[in-house]
Amino acid sequence: MKIKSKNFQKVFLLLGILVLFSINTFSQILEPVKWTFDKNKISDDEYELIFTAKIDAGWHVYSQYIPDGGPIATSFNFDENKNIELIDSVSEPEPIKEYDKNYKMTLKFFAEKAVFKQKIKVLTKEKFDVTGYLEFMCCDDSRCLPPSEIDFTYKINENSPTIQKADDNQPVKKKKQDNTGTNLFQFFIFAFIGGLIAILTPCVFPMIPMTVSFFMHSSEKKSKAKKQALFFGLSIIVIYTFIGLIVSVTLGPSFINWLSTSWLPNIFFFLIFMIFAFSFFGAFEITLPSWMINKTDKKADKGGYVGAFFMAFTLVLVSFSCTVPIVGTILVEAAVGEVLKPVIGMLGFSLAFALPFSFFAFFPSKLGNLPKSGGWLNTVKVILGFIELALGMKFLMVADQTYHWGLLDREIYIAIWIAIFSVMGLYLLGKIKFSGDSEKKYLSVPRVIASILTFSFVVYLIPGMFGAPLKALSGYLPPMQTHDFNLNKIIRENVEQISFDNNKTDIYEKVKYDDFLELPHGLKGYFDYNQALGKAKEVNKPLFIDFTGHGCVNCREMEANVWSDPRVLKRLKNNFIIAALYVDDKTKLPEADWSKSKYDGKIKKTLGAKYADFQVVYFKSNSQPNYILLDNTAILDPDKIDNYILAKPRGYNLNTDEFVDFLDTAIVEFNKRHKIK
Q1: Which residues contact 178 (CB under 8 A, 6 or more apart)?
Q2: Regarding the domain delimited by 33-171, which CATH topology (the fold level of the hierarchy) does it fall under?
């Protein structure tokens, strides 16, 4: 038995290494280029800034000099700095020249390593930083990754050399404001809380004392039992994380994009959430075949580390009917996010799920402090059912908004939520009962508190039926423009005296796509780039481009919390022509409006596909929201478009003061270029 246990430990260790290796390998697929930044001091007033690209085998990065119609050239962009003068342009090594069959032209590129250099003249003895960003595109023989941007910083007049590795800001799609790391951490916390909730379900909570007895009754030494308990907890984490890894590797980024925008997966997820909800209500149980549970249970009886692993596996299977709705919720949410989200989600869930089992197996004397099992476990389960019911509506909303079915306008959505949480409040008060609920002679304090919180939430929702913004939920409700009875809109449209100019001549008589698209807060604008640019030229105003999407939670939060500020509204109405370009709209375009992508060569036949491609090709970004402030003299040339950008593009950031500064910077720059006083 000892030999088998040792062998099993090795297998388990190899499995863990395989998981970590797979995660690392998969996360590196889209990072074939690593940049480092260094400098050489040539003289007292001259420096040489060095940009080094280390390129993975099989990949290449393009030269700074690429003919029109080719891929994105490598470019170096320096922020304005009064302390330096640039000497000549950025130098590059001798490139490889080959005919590219995809672009059908001879191109210059670099493989393995490329070193670029820029000489600068320093105009001061004070310490300062030279900042900016570089843009590049990398390809292999069969595919190209989206154009990427990396910020750089060089410390000048300091004794220490600048050696900045780009490991912490890997090639991103133009937008450092994505906050990917923050989003993943938030999702980890969300999943961790899900794991804690799963413990309080009828299938899981009673298993805790059984687990403790498993580790303590047959062990000769307590130290050995504690090691097995720790191994048991690690086994739970590996099992769930491995599930997340499989989902992550199976789906991949392109499939995730399809999951986010297509009606079929969104309707499927909606139905899945409904099934989960009714399962929690007690209508039926989602169970695994009994033979599977019995087989793992027999192996758990072997004891030792083998037994600890299969005890963990048995726990996962036995608790399936209660945990699968929560696990499913995490995986569904992860499936429409970043590629690593399933792994991060399952890691967070399993860590929380394993904690009490490992803790009480490690310290069995604390077991007496646990509350006794009872009807309260079923109450937790039913409450989760109501939450699943409410959350599932989001997927139906995304499909409805993307395809303009008109089934789930804002007030209908809010009405459904009011009904769901009202019934939940009545349930907490004992006015409604489900199968599995025990008789209650009186209300406990936790139930009273929970019912008060639930009805408070219902009261908060009610004004939303009449047009209240409900900013706290802005990302999870249909947009305000789908609201039929909006008091704010009615008042706005009928009041002649307003605090800022609303020049009707700034709008075309017929705005394309305005029969199914609308801007928030009564703003007027366009949903077609060319039409918006034409009007911007006509009235001599800069262009405010909003890359947005129907399913973009962050877009709705920006509109509700930042755009609604009077200072922002005033500037958007008076100083800009707005172009809201939806990247996920499924409206079919007439054949005359179809466009062939300069990025992937495919024909874009829908409104969303057209502007998703437009964003990648010309603005090197594929995330939303993305706000571009553009001069009305802009020419659509990927290599020159940056010359017409009036302020550094912004993404999701709820700091209203910074957004006002962002708009003001563009206004000042536009007036300067057009000599407007």
Answers
A1: 172, 623, 651, 652
A2: Immunoglobulin-like (2.60.40)
Paired tokens of 636: 């659509």
From the number of C-beta atoms within 10 Å of its C-beta (0-12, 13-18, 19+), residue 111 rates as middle
Taking domain 503-673, whether its CATH number is 3.40.50.300 is answered by no
Residue bearing tokens 């799920």: 353
The pLDDT of residue 435 is 77
- Tell me which residue of 379, 272, 371, 402 sits closest to 330, measured CA to CA: 272
| Cross-strand partners of 46 | 43, 121
Q: What angle do CA 427, 432, 437 make, to 5 degrees?
A: 85
Section 165-173 average pLDDT: 41
Largest interatomic CA distance in the chain? 88
Residue pLDDT, tens place only, 84-142: 999 988 999 999 988 776 566 788 999 999 999 999 999 988 889 999 989 888 887 65
**What is the share, in percent, of the chain residues with pLDDT greater than 90?**
22
**How many Å apart are CA 53 and CA 75, to the nearest integer?**
13
Predicted local confidence at residue 289, as pLDDT: 52
Q: Report d(CA 186, CA 597) in Å as an integer.
A: 35
Task: At 458, list the tokens.
Answer: 């219902």
Whether the pLDDT of residue 372 is over 90: the answer is no
Delimiting residues of CATH 2.60.40.1250 domain(s) in the chain? 33-171
Residue 592 is classified by DSSP as G
SS (H, E, C) 139-169: ECCCCECCCEEEEEEEEECCCCCCCEEHHHH
How many C-beta neighbours within 10 Å does residue 34 have? 16
667 to 339, 359, 499: CA distances (angstroms): 38, 60, 20
What 3-state DSSP class applies to 47? strand
**What is the CA angle 252-255-257, rounded to 5?**
110
What is the rounded end-to-end Cα distance, in angstroms, of the chain?
88
Contact 619, 613 (CB under 8 A): no
Residue 240 neighbours by CB distance under 10 Å: 27
Give the per-residue pLDDT at 305.
63
CB 430 within 8 A of CB 443: yes
Global confidence as pTM: 0.47
626, 631, 633, 635: CA torsion to nearest 10: -30
Cβ contact 323:210 at 8 Å: no
Residue 330: what residue type? I
Residues of the chain with CATH 3.40.30.10: 503-673
Is the separation of the CB atoms in 37 and 51 below 8 Å?
yes
Residue 673 CB-density burial (10 A; 0-12 exposed, 13-18 middle, 19+ buried): middle
In a 10 Å sphere around its CB, with 0-12 CB exposed, 13-18 middle and 19+ buried, how is residue 645 labelled?
middle
| Distant-in-sequence, close-in-space partners of 202: CB < 8 Å, separation ≥ 6 | 322, 373, 377, 378, 381, 436
Cα separation, 329 vs 326, in Å, equals 5
pLDDT tens per residue across span 242-297: 776 776 566 544 455 555 556 777 787 788 778 878 877 877 765 545 544 455 55
